[in-house]
Design brief:
- 13% of the residues lie in helices and 35% in strands.
- By secondary structure, the protein is mostly beta strands.
- It has a single domain, classed as Deoxyuridine 5'-Triphosphate Nucleotidohydrolase, Chain A, CATH 2.70.40.10.
- The strands form 4 sheets. The chain has a 4-stranded antiparallel β-sheet. Strands 2-11-7 form a 3-stranded antiparallel β-sheet.
C-alpha cells in the first residue's frame, strides 16, 4: 500500500516518517516533494573505478543556478532529511523536471527502512539544463511493509550532502 498525502502528514506528525524541514505545501496526493540542495559532486577521473575510491569535485550552486551538461553524472542531494523506521521510501523525479530532460534517480529509487538523512540524487541531463538550489526536483512515496523489519545501518546512514559511491568498500570486505 502507498501512503496518501493526508497519511504522510499524519505520519510526519506522529513520527513514523521524519522529514526535516517539513513543509505542508510539498505534500501531494500520494507523495512528498523534495528540493535540490546547493551542492553537486562530479567524478573527475576519465574512468570511474567501482573497486577504488574515485576523485570528485564539489560545486556550490548559487542563486543564478548551474548548468548541467549532457554526458556528465552529477550527484546532488535533497534539502530535506527524510527517513522512516516503519515505511519503505521511494524517490522519483517529478514529471515536470523529466519534461525538461532531466533524469533523476532512475537506477536506485528505493530507500531502506531505517535510513535517515539527505538523499543523494543521481542527475543526468539530456540537454544543457540550468537548475537552482531549492527547486522541487523529486518526490518521495512511502509504502507499507509486511514482515519483520530490520532497520538500515549501512554506510550512507545520516548522510548530509551528496555522497559518492562507496561500492569499493563492499569489495574490501570480500578480500
Amino acid at each position: 500500500m502507498i501512503l496518501t498525502g493526508p497519511e504522510i502528514v499524519e505520519s510526519a506528525r506522529d513520527g513514523r516518517i521524519s522529514i526535516s524541514p517539513f513543509n505542508r505545501d510539498q505534500v501531494n496526493p500520494n507523495s512528498y516533494n523534495v528540493c535540490l540542495g546547493e551542492t553537486l559532486i562530479t567524478y573527475t577521473d576519465s574512468v570511474i573505478d567501482a573497486y577504488r575510491p574515485n576523485r570528485t569535485d564539489a560545486t556550490k550552486i548559487d542563486s543564478s543556478g548551474f548548468v548541467l551538461e549532457p554526458d556528465q553524472l552529477y550527484l546532488g542531494h535533497t534539502v530535506e532529511e527524510v527517513g522512516s523506521d516503519v515505511f519503505v521510501p521511494l524517490l522519483f523525479g517529478r514529471s515536470s523536471v523529466g519534461r525538461l530532460g532531466l533524469f533523476v534517480e532512475i537506477t536506485a529509487p528505493i530507500g531502506d527502512i531505517g535510513f535517515h538523512g539527505q538523499w543523494t540524487l543521481m542527475l543526468s541531463a539530456v540537454r544543457p539544463l540550468r537548475v537552482y538550489p531549492g527547486m522541487k526536483i523529486g518526490q518521495i512515496m512511502f509504502f507499507d511493509t509486511l514482515g519483520d523489519i530490520e532497520p538500515y545501518s549501512g554506510k550512507y546512514q545520516g548522510a548530509v550532502g551528496p555522497q559518492e559511491s562507496r561500492y569499493w568498500r563492499d569489495k574490501l570486505g570480500q578480500l
